[in-house]
Amino acid sequence: MNPKLDKVLSLPNYQKLLLLLLVCSVIFGLFWLVVYQPMGKELDRLQRQKGGLERKLAEDRRIADNLPKFRAEYEKLEKQLEVALRELPNKKEISSLLVGISSLAKNTGLEVVEFKPSAPVPQGFYAQVPVSLRLKGSFHEIAMFSYHVGNMTRIVNLSNLRMGNAKVEDGRNLLSVECKATTFQFIDTPVDKAKTGKRKGRK
């Protein structure tokens, strides 16, 4: 028989028990370090990954459920943008719009004494286009002109309305009117007011 084994077998029982416990502890320690601990870390990683995938799946489902709503909102915004662009003419269309305002005044019976457009005033993605007007006609014609301007497809605001010099011509009670018509022009590149001010200051 193996002398080393004989030596172990000849030990007292309590020493054999201690030796057995030591061997079991070493085996358990090796199992913990080599097998259980790496498996535990891998299990934690997989559980975290599972949690992340479940959250992503829930978010994807929420987006999928709301997709018709998002699509409807997008289509609504597209229509609103289309309406806004239709109400804000671009540079090429502004001339015809101004001619339309002048023609509208004449068609309502007013005499256009002065029609003086000013330079556009940039306001970001759009610009104000003010027009100084001097008109002559009856109160009814002035009221009709204001009404039709307010119902144009393009946005035109009348302000600074001043009436005076009432007189009778050919049996008609006529008034002289001064006002400012302001329309709005869409511009492709918004103007930075701060930069514009700096450039003016440098000059």
UniProtKB/TrEMBL annotation:
| InterPro entries with a match to the protein in the record | PilO, Transl_elong_EF1B/ribsomal_bS6
* Designated name of the protein: Type IV pilus biogenesis protein PilO
This chain's source organism reads Syntrophotalea carbinolica (strain DSM 2380 / NBRC 103641 / GraBd1) (Pelobacter carbinolicus)
**Mind listing the GO biological process terms from this record?**
type IV pilus assembly; type IV pilus-dependent motility
The portions of this protein that span the membrane are: 17-36
Which spans of this chain does the record mark as coiled coil? 43-94
Q: By its UniProt entry, which Pfam families does this protein fall under?
A: PilO (PF04350)
UniProt xrefs under Gene3D superfamilies: 3.30.70.60
Organism ancestry: Bacteria, Pseudomonadati, Thermodesulfobacteriota, Desulfuromonadia, Desulfuromonadales
Q: Which UniProt keywords apply?
A: Coiled coil, Membrane, Transmembrane, Transmembrane helix
